[in-house]
Structures are given as C-alpha cells and as structure tokens.
Amino acid sequence: MEEANQSVVHEFIFQGLCNSKELQIFLFLSFSILYLMTVVGNLFVVLLIITDPHLHSPMYFLLANLSFVDFCLSSVTTPKLTTDLLKEKKTISFGGCMSQILCVHFFWRR
Q1: For residue 54, is it within any domain?
Q2: Boundaries of each G-protein coupled receptors family 1 profile domain copy (predicted)?
Q3: CA dist 95 → 12, 26, 39, 61, 91 (Å)
Q4: Does residue 59 lie within any of the structural domains?
Q5: Which of 44, 49, 53, 99 could lock 64 by a disulfide, CB 3.0 to 4.6 Å apart?
Q6: What span, in angstroms and rounded, lies between the C-alpha atoms of 4 and 100?
Q7: Where do the H-state alpha helices sit in the chain?
Q8: 3-state DSSP call for residue 18?
C-alpha cells in the first residue's frame, strides 16, 4: 500500500535578499521611498481626474483606471516586502501567500 504525503504547510520562510543588516536597512528605505512616491503619485492622478470636470473624458478615465490599478498592484506585495526587511524571522502564512497571489492575479488582469 502506498503512503501519501500527509504534511500540511502553515507558513513559508523567506530567505531574503541578503544577510547584511546595513543593506537590509538601505533596501528598506529605498523600497519605502519608492512605494510612497508610487502611492502619492497615483492617488494624486486619480483625485485630480475625479475633481477636475475638464478631465472627464474617456482618455482620462482610462488614465485614472491605470493609476488606480497601479496603486492597488503595488500595495499587494510591497508592504510585506518592506516590513520583512526589518524582521529577524521572515515568514508568511499560507493564507497570506494565497491572498497575495489572488490579488496580484486579480489586479494584473484588469
């Protein structure tokens, strides 16, 4: 009789980009600044197009949609990446990983 694998995965362990604490802090600051610029820029574009009546045309509607999708897509994985750069134990739960994959696929296909 054949034995089946009965193990269950509860979390994944990230190996990380590097082991150097100084480089991790540098990467944390770099990714945080880039993420902040992405969020502020995309939200500014969306709010500007919504509030200005002269920009209510199909071209600007598509531009606002693109900015919103870019904001959502960058907000799926970047916060977890940046917080894990500062943690000693870099893990993600199975449910958290699956929800990230679902959100990335959802926003990527928009």
Answers
A1: yes
A2: 41-110
A3: 10, 29, 25, 34, 12
A4: yes
A5: 49
A6: 29
A7: 21-51, 58-86, 94-108
A8: coil
Q: Is residue 1 part of a domain?
A: no
Give a yes or no: residue 4 inside a domain: no
Residue 90: domain span: 22-108
pLDDT of residue 88: 84
How do the pLDDT tens digits run along the chain, 110 residues long? 677 877 887 888 877 667 888 998 999 999 999 999 999 999 999 999 999 999 999 999 999 999 999 999 999 989 998 998 888 888 889 899 999 999 999 887 75
Token code pair at residue 54: 């002269």
- According to the model, what pLDDT value does residue 109 have? 72
Identify which of 58, 82, 83, 72 has the alpha carbon closest to the alpha carbon of residue 105. 72
**One-letter identity of residue 64:** A
